[in-house]
Amino acid sequence: MRIGDILQAKSSTEVITIGPDAGVRELLALLAEHNIGAVIVSADGSSLDGIVSERDVVRHLHTDGTVINNTVASIMTETVETCAPEDPLDGVMQTMTERRFRHIPVCSEGGALVGIISIGDVVKHKIGQLTFERDQLDSYVHQT
Q: What is the tens place of the pLDDT at every residue in 10-49?
């Protein structure tokens, strides 16, 4: 299974982005509006300048109670681990687990942003795969 297969199975292929100069309040509104946990930071809406998540907000809130008045650029992660549509799912899952990532942007060979994979997308796929295998085994065992 490849990352591209996971992207195709998603209900929406839209990648939500926010500009680095946007405020943290705007970020929180965007996260709530779309019921998501992370947003790609992009000055032009298609490039990858960084990523910012609920976790980033919470970590900065712990050390700086005024984080709500800051810009996204001040709390975002600038060095972003990405994957490609051709990458095998198992390798990306291992990276997500080892590095404790919940979201990984998907970029084409030319570096264009084509999607984002969340740990929820991965778990949903794995559960579907296990259910299919269980049903196949059950069918085999109960053949008449």
A: 887 789 999 999 999 999 999 999 999 999 999 988 889 9
**CATH, domain 3-141, list 3.30.240.20, 3.20.20.190, 3.40.1500.10, 3.10.580.10:** 3.10.580.10
In sequence order, which ranges of the chain are alpha helices (DSSP H)? Answer: 3-9, 24-34, 54-63, 89-99, 119-141
Alpha helix (H) residue ranges in 35-106:
54-63, 89-99
Rounded to two decimals, the pTM is 0.84
**Residue 129: predicted pLDDT:** 83
